[in-house]
Amino acid sequence: MPSSHRKVAVVGISLADCGRVETATPYALHAQAARRALADSGLDRSVVDGFASAGLGTLAPVEVAEYLGLKPTWVDSTSVGGSTWEVMAAHAADAIAAGRANAVLLVYGSTARSDIKAGRRTSNLSFGARGPLQFEVPYGHSLVAKYAMAARRHMHAYGTTLEQLAEVAVQARANAAANPDAMFRDPITVDEVLSGPMIADPFTKLHCCIRSDGGCAVLLAAEEYVPDTAKEPVWILGTGEHVSHSAMSEWDDFTVSPAAVSGRLAFERAGVRPADIDLAEIYDAFTYMTLVTLEDLGFCAKGEGGAYVEKGRTGLTGELPVNTDGGGLSACHPGMRGLFLLVEAVRQLRGEAGERQVRKAGGRLPELAVASGTGGWFCSSGTVVLGRG
């Protein structure tokens, strides 16, 4: 059905088992998430003719598709870190709109935590020492240090405080308290964040994402499949993607993330403004990522992110609920977390979030959400605007 005007909806979402999953393989988590997403959609697996996956196997997504028993005619293995899934969703939506695919399944699964506990792998201090990275690795510039250096630059330029950065972690944990699937739910305070063990100045342990196992899946389909689905559709309204640098020396401004471009494109293509958005799901491997992405998506002016995150603005009943499941700082972070952002955004728009459900005035469900993923060390960004009804 060739058409460049077909609307595209998210028709199925799911989480695989998350948190501490010591008896499953990454392939098993992919399969579990895929089965659950299809069941959520009410569609038969035979409609799936597109598949997107990254991060597993030598020939991703070929190996994962084979494991799932799929033989897709459209595939994507784009890998740009945490923003992979927003970028993949954008590519899938374009393919469906153009008639190149009808239903595309995006799946992710990882046993990152269990693998480390069992000694099957070690932590990632860097992404390697090839290409442009060879000029930074000899100086001990680890992955977390790159984020920390960017945070320090924002503090220097705009007076952002350690307490303001810590407030991001505190609010994420408060949101997680209402999420039964979150890995950490006990409240934390700003003082507890600040007094924790130092990881990379200014980040203490609670400024950094947790490490978990887990997986999830999202099924996108063309509008003609919507009448046969089990749930109300959530529509893809607009998307944007952008890459800015690989070497830190090529990053023009440490206080501006690539979301400044991907967000603008997504909002323009969706025909909405940041002020119209009811909730935001933002990649938060570190507290600074949330703060600077809020600025770059246009929810506050550049340099005002620190003040914005104070006073509960990003809580479930705040001005702009952010990372309503607790995010990577408290809920789960099994690696490339971007797909979890889409799952939570859809869950909120459907009204399926239980105790953490966001409500508008009069108890109405939210109508618009944005999911914005960041990859590498602010190297890439993908932003998706989603709408209900």
TrEMBL record:
Q: Which InterPro entries match?
A: Thiolase (IPR002155), Thiolase-like (IPR016039), Thiolase_C_2 (IPR055140)
Gene3D superfamilies attached here? 3.40.47.10
Q: Which CDD domains match?
A: SCP-x_thiolase
Q: Name one Pfam family in it.
A: Thiolase_C_1
Annotated Thiolase C-terminal domain residues: 240-388
PANTHER family recorded: ACETYL-COA C-ACETYLTRANSFERASE, NON-SPECIFIC LIPID-TRANSFER PROTEIN-LIKE 2
Give the protein's recorded name.
Answer: Acetyl-CoA acetyltransferase
